Amino acid sequence: MSVNSTLAHLEQASAVIELDHGARLWRFHRVLGAPAEALFHTLCNELPWERPTVRVFGRAHAVPRLTCWIADAGTHYRYSGLHHRGQGWPEVLAPLRQRLRRLTGRDPNGVLGNLYRDGDDTMGWHRDNEPELGPAPWVLSYNLGAERDFALRRYGEHRQSDLITLGHDELLVMSPEVQRHYEHALPRRRRVTAPRLNLTFREIVTGR
Ligand SMILES: O=C(O)CCC(=O)C(=O)O
Ligand SMILES: [Fe+2]
Fold first, then answer.
1. pTM for this structure?
2. pLDDT tens digits for range 153-174
3. Looking at this predicted complex, what is its ipTM?
4. Which residue among 114, 130, 148, 169 is best mutated to probe the pocket of ligand 1, counting the most ligand atoms within 8 A of its Cβ?
């Protein structure tokens, strides 16, 4: 998949955000339209949500959200010290996957689902740069349900540099430079009482 073909597709985006070091993010509003509502409820109810425990500085913590991993059969992916094997895709994700291919020209073969039950559920600062994603990872982040703030900061710095409020049925595409030069996080928002579901589609390149 050439970068030029991806960039040509991304010209359809509703908005583009240019950060330092060539890092770019594209926003697409109303990705599915009316069917997004039913998809949100189906995915909340039917995906195999878990609350994994991770070790941080030697201590076990349950992650502050629910997660699930879905990928092509035969793929292997490690994140947060946990190993995940792909077992194929549920039929319910097929139309969304097809739509994302059409919008972006990318062909992700795995997706990490995150279900934030309310504004107390969060994700800490990190980059999506696992070795399985290769040297130039594109990440397609699709959002359903409550609006939440998505924060960015330059890698190696403490201070937040950018904040994007992501809404229902919105797609955020991150260029590989975003993972190289920035970290992102989903901060706590006590006033948010409704759930939000996020699907970050990725391309596992090892053994493909
Ligand atoms: O929920 C979000 O918007 C961010 C999710 C994320 O960063 C990830 O899954 O790696
Ligand atoms: Fe991420």
1. 0.96
2. 999 999 999 999 999 999 999 9
3. 0.99
4. 114
